[in-house]
Amino acid sequence: MSLLSIENLSLDIGGTPILKDIDLQIAPGEVLGLVGESGSGKSMTALTVMQLLPEAARARGRVTFDGIDILAAPEDAMCRLRGDDLGMVFQEPMTALNPVKPIGEQVAEGIRWHTGVSRADAEARARAILDRVGLPEAKFPLSRYPHELSGGQRQRVVIAIACALKPKLLIADEPTTALDVVLQAQILDLLRDLVGENRMGLLLISHDLAVVAEMADRVTILRHGAVMESGPTGAVLSARRHPYTRQLAEASTHVPARPRDPSAKPSGPPLLEVRDLTRDYPGRRTGLFQHEKPFRAVDGVSFSLPAGHTAALVGRSGCGKSTLARMILALDRPTAGSVSLMGETLEGKSEAQLRGARRNMQVVFQDPYGSFNPRHRVERLVAEPLHLFDKRPDAGERRERVAQALDDVGLAAADMDKYPHEFSGGQRQRISIARAIITRPKLIVADEPVSALDVSIRAQILDLFADLNQRLGLTYLFITHDLTVARAITDEVMVMDEGRIVERGPTSDVLRHPTTPAAQALVGAAPDLEQALARRLSAERSGSPL
Amino acid sequence: MSMDPTIPGAPPERGFLRLALANRSFLIGCAITLAVAGLALLSFFWTPYDITHLTVADRLKGLSTNHPLGTDHLGRDILSMIMIGARNSIAVAIVAVLIGMGIGVPLGAWAAARGGLVDEVLMRFNDLVFAFPALLSAIMITAIFGPGALNAIIAIGIFNVPVFARVARAGALSIWPREFILAARAAGKSRTLITIEHILPNITALLLVQGTIQFALGILAEAGLSYLGLGAQPPMPSWGRMLFEAQTRMIVAPHLALFPGLAIVVTVLGLNLLGDGLRDLLDPRLRRER
User: Residues annotated as region Disordered (chain A) (predicted)?
Assistant: First the structure.
């Protein structure tokens, strides 16, 4: 008998249909991957099971969990289920914990509420589960606060809260999307072990096919609130019978065509040269005039980039790659060392003296929602860097240039009179690229430019980057923790760890044969769709679970 | 009051009018505020009686059709006095808010933009001004420079400065780390230009709400000062002094104290409702929870 069974579930919120006739089953000890792009209804399916839907939501159909009809269950029955037999892990570990309560209390809270045991017993059990998720007493006493933990550690606490009472079903909504690949691998391992130990069912929601291929026994693919295809993971994802499954799978391993002779060595002086760049942040204040030892975010980094070259700076979160990018862009002052662009050093120059350099280097950010002032129209947003020209273009010329830049990134000139919220995530990222290329710069620094995008959109944006590299002769520095991006689009990879560049070389060499431990950890942890599918398929054929 | 209905982090709102019409405290607050402002404006052209004209024979009359709110000890019409007093209260409070905004917002925005020592010094100075009870210091200022509407305005205005500085700084600090600000910096814009183009428009809502609150507090403070005889001087009527004059005749003619008191209460209530409503309308977080 299945643990969770959803039949013909339809959902509308305030009259807008969200889900249409969803069917899915999870057996005890089984991992079901729920895959889809943003807006496909993945999270709403999870919230329906938890009965945490918004007020205006109306659900029809049948949702049975462990013999209980969830849609008909009264709120207090749901309260007893949630956090006991039904656990949930959310995407964002930074906001899923209460910042003013120590972690021990947050774990013990649910235990006491559901079992009515004494405070001491609850704490002992909290201790045990925190140990289990890899936060041992010696290093992580119960009295730690969330802000004293890193993102991966917080996600472990969230999992501990969800699994403290050995739930029958755990719902994990993009549990690793906010984490870097090394942490992702650790968290996925932990979830897999917990499933094995307790015969827990796991509903794993993800947009990442590689993660699902590694984790899930069966997969259900959602689009626009309807199930496109479902079945055993290996069979579904390798046969790719449904056109949408094929489209998703192809997009996630997409490599843009870059008709370039990789042996052609770029000549001439380097476009960007970074020498011994170091950045210290002052330590925490411990007294009125006392500070802790300064924290060295970037430590003596040197490299150079020839014109027309595409390089990736990869590393785990917190390794200093974004700080390095900001110093290159002259948005942050280095403690020591120098950056020069086209032979011109950037340090110690005033904003006015930097104008020339700024014209030649622009930036594309990760978040297509946060990188625009919501009150300005696209014309004004894209035209912002035109401010860098000594002779400001007049209104007509400005519109012409904006139209040209929008055309370059595949948008229509008429789009310039709209506001950013009228565009989708992928289109916004195009606008952000249009803003970056309007001054016809030589260097573009892109900080995780596709990691907030859905796979199919991400493939299109990578194509656009490759195309612009071709047409405009742009040099890119991609900052990313995602090796598939590096593999898809860059000639060269620099691996950063604890503020230093530890390994550097042609992309294919470094990703195939990493030599340093930091690079090996990154490459080893990166989920790979093809490899995971091969393993899955052989397991499915022999009939044994992975 | 002109206002821009957009909020930080959200696109310009098209359904603002619809939402505003559904927000009861905003509607009631608006209605009261407009009514008081309307009475004050009307008093420039017409009042039921000329208040400089004393009719001692009619002194301390109760409510009647001739004098809807009665007359005071000099036979002046209370309704006319309240209408003219409204003009005084509103003028003092508005100018005080404008002074507070005009000085406080640039200071707060500057502190947020510069950070470091500038921020530290400005904010500690702010704390210093905050440390004095506002009304007490206003009494001191008017006592030194002499009573009068102008000095009352300055005294109340000075104490609005740190309030706006703090709100502007807090709002600006939450906008500065956003990526569109980094993008603007990468486009070579100076801190001043970024503050004007990106920061200020995104904290307007915040300042507007604080403005209505300070406006209400200004009316209270003005009433307090003129109650002590430190506000507008006779023959200009003011709500605070009307209360003071009514005090000794409370037993004989309670309506003398009742109506100016009600005028203060209703105006402050209206402004507070307006501020509450504006906050609900402009704060995306609260709106979603509704």
Answer: 251-272
